[in-house]
Amino acid sequence: MFDTTIRDRFDAIAPHIVPGTAVLDLGCVDARPARRSGHTSAHAPDLLFRRLVEVNPDAVGVDHDAEGVAALQSAGYHAVCANVQTLDLGWQFDTIVAGELIEHLDNPGLFLTAVRRHLKPGGKLILTTPNPFYALQAWHIWRRGRPRCNEGHVVWFDPVTLTRLLRRCGFEPVEGYWIQPQRRWLKAWKRLFRRYFSHSFLIVATV
């Protein structure tokens, strides 16, 4: 695993969300106003959730933002308001997607336990998360004395630590990809020689 770099995480997600399968997206409300352009609602679906629904119209979204979920429901999306760390919907899915979510959670292990009980036997969990060793972080440390960190992030994972946590929670990773959008290549030149300096990564794990 992790011998391939992709520019768009959706390239690795799309094969697992084909129509006719049960798909759940966790963290489906876009909390960033700058990315809500083009939507009349004060709350918009996350970009990833929109793309999932385009491929699989029956995809279900979950978010803790009650107002945002209500707005998505009004717009015709199948969305549920719930805490992903204590999730108990009463049904199971073929694929569960958690894009850029686990780094925001107080208890990632509790979250994975909740996810596991919502997967059918042989079902797959797809996780993406920022890479703490991203090459551009060194530039931020030199310039500002500290790495850059989203104010909502409370934990960092790399492929080694996330793989260990997944296995502790009953998952087995089966696919892994580095994600490197085509940008800032000059400041992030180290990743051209070592993939471990890439922007983020994606893991597919099964139960």
Plain-language structure description:
- By secondary structure, this protein is of the alpha/beta class.
- The protein has one domain: 3-Layer(aba) Sandwich (Rossmann fold), CATH 3.40.50.
- 25% of the residues lie in helices and 25% in strands.
- The protein contains 6 helices and 10 strands.
- It has helices at residues 10-13, 47-55, 66-74, 108-116, 135-144, 159-168, and strands spanning 5-6, 23-26, 29-30, 44-45, 60-63, 79-81, 93-99, 119-130, 172-179, 200-206.
- The strands form 2 sheets. The chain has an 8-stranded mixed beta sheet. It has a two-stranded antiparallel ribbon with strand order 3-4.
- The longest helix has 10 residues, at 135-144.
- The chain is globular.
